[in-house]
Write a structure and sequence with these properties.
alpha+beta, five-stranded mixed beta sheet, 26 strands, 13 helices, 29% strand, 478 residues, five-stranded antiparallel beta sheet
Amino acid sequence: MKRIFFSGICLAGLFASCLLFFTSCETLENIGDKISGIFASDKDEEENSVSGKASPVKIQPRQTYYATPESYEKAYSFRTDLPDKTIQTYIKNKNIDSLRQTNPNEYIKSITGKINESAVNDFERVKLAHDVICLLISYDAKNFWVNTVPSQDWQSVLKTKTAVCEGYANLFQQFMTSLNISSQKVSGYARGVGTDILAENPKASNHAWNIVKIEGCWYLVDCTWDSGYMKGKSSVQSYTTDWLFLKPEHFVYTHFPSDAKNQLIQPALSAAEFSALPDFRPKLFEIAGDNFNSIKKNNSAASSYSIESKIKEGWKLTYVLRADSGSEVKNGIWTEKDGRITETTFQFPSAGRYSVFVYYEKESSLSGQSCGQFIINASEASSIKYPSVYPVKSKSAKLISPKQSPLAGGDTVEFEVFCDDRAFVAAIVGRNFIQLENDGSGSFTGQVSIPKGTKQISIGLSANGKGSYETLAVFEVK
């Protein structure tokens, strides 16, 4: 599922709170040693262009205008994607909800009173205010699309329970004022609905979010995007903490504030530097760390391009490759996995520009959500095509060989599959199931003679060798 985030014609943003213990803040003198930069050196860029393989980047140190924490470890412990249950129950109370409609001021007092009663510090107060807004307010997609957005003052937002980004940000500001926590509303450009990384103008403001000061340090939050996403022209309420206390060096991949100091990094990125960044989302950094720092929005390659990354245990990344026409390139992606290290290679059927879309999902899942997009400009055509490999329920199944398609009719081919949680693996030719031999360790091998006139061969998995086989891979035959 692709999450399309709210922005576009109208402004809105929101803030959050989290339980956090005291953490010291960096000064302008030493912050540069702590915050990661964005761009590769000229040498890295040259090597990337020649080899077509993403290589490690030498990080340029950056400093902050505002004080930021030495470590985000404690803040990130509250990025759980789980709303507070007490707040969930409280805002559903009919008596409390009636105040929202009839007396917004008293509603805010009641909610902040509950927050102060529950929270042990300002981190948690911000998190609970974040949860109220993200659970209560729905994005006003109807008015957004016809450009008839009503007043976005915080009282109107509470009464209607709808807002665009400006209304989210205004309501958050009111909560922070009531909680006596310093915060600011930030406006700028965001890569949300109606934007295209191939043709964007980061100097055109289309979004609003917030920064908040907790125990002397500043944090970034976008509660509009934490409240849900756009599906077609309808908004979907979907709580997350992706944009709660997100590190500035990750936030800047999608948000470019009009006032440079609100990036919370220094030297601040220029509009051109921001435009050179790929569109990467928080889950990508959460799952792959900074493995993707070498990737720009536009990358050069010959006929192929490779990415190597270390993936967080229990998760996986998948990719879709599209030509400039928008059509998906079939059989152009191959991923090798060795423990937590994965290497994905893209083959380009012709010279030209290609878009790579990145998706994240749990290893047990068969579908994912989007977390990134970047461009590869190929200078040559590749003759390599890969077999079609499909997600299966087996946790270990992996096609070892062959790795190229199509196969040739009349040839004898050696197949090898690793799968230690299935008892049977077969090469399926028409109605014939040719069982591969298990060596006892989960490695299945066998030679298969391909009759001329065969159109395709499938590799199937089975627990008992009877009934249906789950398809792992399909090879074309010519």
